[in-house]
Write a structure and sequence with these properties.
With 250 residues, the chain is an alpha/beta fold. Helix content is 42%, strand content 30%. The protein is built from 10 helices and 10 strands. The strands form 2 sheets. Strands 1-2-3-4-5 form a 5-stranded mixed beta sheet, sandwiched between helices. Strands 6-7-8-9-10 form a 5-stranded mixed beta sheet, with helices on both faces. The termini are far apart.
């Protein structure tokens, strides 16, 4: 079942619940036609697929039969956000976004729904702003941050800048990163000169670095390269944050 609602003068939300069927595809076609006839273009669109249970091939055929109409509508949009708790849907959406140059197309997990809505409503310019957040500790020598959501280039650069600023305090020489509900990073974040230079600078200033939580490959990476870096690096489970703080406080 599909529902389409206007959530702001410049934005609509499309929500799909259960299976996306032929009648839903026709409803979507009628909506796009109505937008075209009304001369509405350049708005934003939030597509919530969190509760979608599948789709029928007749619905797919209906959409494909109106693909020129859909493409014209999509290229007229300013921002598109897709929310889904299914990895294959998010992956397919990111591949589709790469094939639509010029369209601001962002993909979110279900726990990032608030960030998706804020971006579509243009309450924020950065689609993943807030993924990198400071954490308060009782020790002035520990800089601590939490990572939630997905890192794009802007958020990666913002996070590195925050950590560098904290480490400028002469008393602060230890860093803790808590990785909670992380959904990866955009490829261009990894090649940012600002990010790379900032990380190298921090590695020189740090005495100890604790990584709490996160996917297994990050821990393997830390174990592999930790011996070659200046700071002592230690990984902890997500429920061992207090142990990480205790180790950093030694």
């Amino acid at each position: 079942m599909i529902t389409i609602e206007r959530i702001a003068p410049h934005a609509h939300r499309i929500t799909v619940v259960a299976e996306f069927e032929l009648a839903d595809a026709k409803t979507l076609v009628d909506f796009v036609k109505g937008q075209k006839e009304a001369g509405e273009s350049g708005g934003n669109l939030l597509i919530d697929l969190t509760s979608m249970a599948g789709f029928s091939w007749t619905a797919v055929a209906e959409e494909l039969g109106h693909m020129p109409l859909f493409m014209q509508y999509i290229y007229g949009l300013k921002r598109i956000a897709i929310i889904s708790d299914e990895e294959w849907i998010r992956t397919a959406a990111r591949l589709e976004s790469a094939m639509l140059p010029g369209v601001a197309y962002q993909v979110y997990d279900d726990d990032e729904a608030d960030a998706a809505l804020a971006w579509v409503l243009e309450e924020t310019e950065n689609p993943h702003e807030g993924a990198f957040r400071p954490i308060e500790t009782d020790s002035p020598k520990i800089a601590a941050f939490e990572l939630v959501g997905r890192l794009d280039r802007k958020e990666s650069e913002r996070g590195v800048a925050m950590a560098r600023t904290a480490l400028q305090n002469p008393e602060c020489s230890r860093l803790m990163i808590v990785i909670r509900h992380w959904h990866g990073f955009d490829p261009d974040a990894a090649i940012s000169r600002e990010v790379m230079a900032g990380k190298l600078e921090m590695m020189k200033a740090l005495e100890r670095y604790a990584i709490v939580g996160g996917p297994e490959w990050i821990r393997n990476f830390a174990s592999l390269f930790g011996a070659m870096l200046k700071p002592d690096i230690k990984c902890f489970e997500l429920d061992e944050q207090d142990d990480a703080i205790a180790w950093l406080s030694e």
